């Protein structure tokens, strides 16, 4: 019985990990409330998640706000940039969808390709900012190159995001399920799972940086 409640017990370690993810998820949600801070919050979320995957530092609260402060300016610039580009592309789609010609069909296909590239960069950019010290231009460039260089991982990450979008739009019940799970631990579980892939990706570049 005593071994069951030992910190080294696999069951207790699993429960502790779930508790940490719930706490991390709550901190992340609270830090996103001002909206403009979402970029810095995502970077901090991935910073802590990667440390949890690598079992490097257990202090969630301290690490989250450390990354939040350090990467606030850079993450906010990138976040606002992606919002602006997304709004611009959204307007383009709105205009093009009102037309029904072969030319606009070709342009629409091109826009979807641009959206795919943009979202692939979006998937990588905040983990890159949270883990590597580089300029904003270098971070954007590195995110694009990593997305291309690690296509199998990129497709897995995009598939994970696509699954969430599908569940949100499939029905009212699945949308409610996503909302509830997101409020409990959805964001942190997703970032933790993604960081299993990012940890493998980043190892190569850590060696080069060293």
Automatic annotation (TrEMBL):
This is DUF624 domain-containing protein. It holds the Pfam family DUF624. The keyword Zinc does not apply. Keywords: Membrane, Transmembrane, Transmembrane helix. InterPro entries: DUF624 (IPR006938). The chain crosses the membrane at residues 21-48, 77-95, 102-126, 146-168, 175-202. The keyword ATP-binding does not apply. It comes from the Bacteria.
